[in-house]
Amino acid sequence: MTPLAIRAYTTTSALGRGLQAHADALSAPRGGLAPNDFSVAPLDCWIGRVAGVEDEPLPPELAEWDCRNNRLAWIALRQDGFAEAMRAARERYGASRVAVLLGTSTASIGATEEGYRRLDHGRMPADLHRPVLHTPHSLASFVAAAFALEGPCLTVATACSSSAKVFANAERMIRLGLVDAAIVGGTDTLCDSVLFGFNSLELVSPEPCRPFDAARSGISIGEAAGFAILERVEAAMDAPLLIGYGEASDAHHMSTPHPEGLGAELALNDALARAGIAPDDVDYINLHGTASQKNDEVEAALVARTFPASTRASSTKGFTGHTLGAAGILEAAITLLSMRDGRVPANLGAETPDPLCGPQMAWRPEAADIRIALSNSFGFGGNNACLAFARAGRHA
């Protein structure tokens, strides 16, 4: 594919607000997980919660959209100069030539949960009787409305791969001439449906998650928001690049990945082929690495059999928790930071490596010249995406 420029990007998670907060935490290394203080009923687990979201309502002109998910999105949109970059893209191309393509798995379901807890004679309470909230499309509609964007507006909800797959949607729309730029990313916030739902599947760990540890005991759920602007390279010559992507679906099981990682391997090979690179060209892989038993063993084996020992790989979910539909954009941003700063993040939390892990795994932070990197997002039910990035000026 013809590479696309990433003119601007930003993210917020339990590590803090904005790119520098994430760079500092990854460098330390310092995680953001803490004991669960969110759910309406006790649940013994650790979560990656963004501080202060409850205390920052949307401005009055956007009050119709006010809920935790859109508040977190609004926080992220207004840092790292991202809102200014969005307005500049609208001025440069026109409101109808900028797409809004966002991923989420829960959208504003937290507001719907609250409404059902406070039903007024069987109806939504008056303060939550806002139809724009109780829909999977709430996030994308909110962002488009807040920035007066009139181009294609799309929500991708493919579980944990959601905000990675939007990069593929953007490439197709720009290549086909439907738009000139795309706002991609996503937001997912903590809610009881997610916490108790994953716990009912016996996937939630009572301790901080330990990706790729031999004694790992499950995932830690987090929340995050992140966004990026994609344009043709000539519009932003000095920007990092999206050089490839791959997508595949296992069609194996409702929740468990294919035991041989066939869908994940298809997505990985598709990304390499579309980028025109070989495994030996990849300097770093940000792994999906949720700390669940099946995901980690499948991904560890895939990396070990595909890449040389010189390729470095790690999961950053030990820092942030698994941010579900926002994991793709959060980890894409972390990957871009790793390229910018020349630093491979640690695989935080792991003490005893799973025997399936190969020499590619970076258990501690490492300095590295990262020219080309991958970011894996393997979703619940076997929906897989892999993104390939290159540092500005380093991909021919």
UniProtKB/TrEMBL annotation:
Which pathway or pathways does this protein act in? Answer: Lipid metabolism; fatty acid biosynthesis
The residue ranges of the Ketosynthase family 3 (KS3) domain are: 1-391
Instruction: Extract the SMART domains matched here.
Output: PKS_KS
Example GO molecular function term?
3-oxoacyl-[acyl-carrier-protein] synthase activity
Record GO biological process: fatty acid biosynthetic process
Q: Name one GO cellular component term.
A: cytosol
Q: Provide the alphabetized UniProt keywords.
A: Transferase
CDD domains to which the protein is assigned, alphabetical: KAS_I_II
Q: Could you tell me which InterPro entries the record lists for this protein?
A: Beta-ketoacyl_synthase, Ketoacyl_synth_AS, Ketoacyl_synth_C, Ketoacyl_synth_N, PKS_Beta-ketoAc_synthase_dom, Thiolase-like
Q: Does the keyword Transferase apply?
A: yes
Write out the similarity annotation.
Belongs to the thiolase-like superfamily. Beta-ketoacyl-ACP synthases family.
| Protein name per Swiss-Prot or TrEMBL | Beta-ketoacyl-[acyl-carrier-protein] synthase family protein
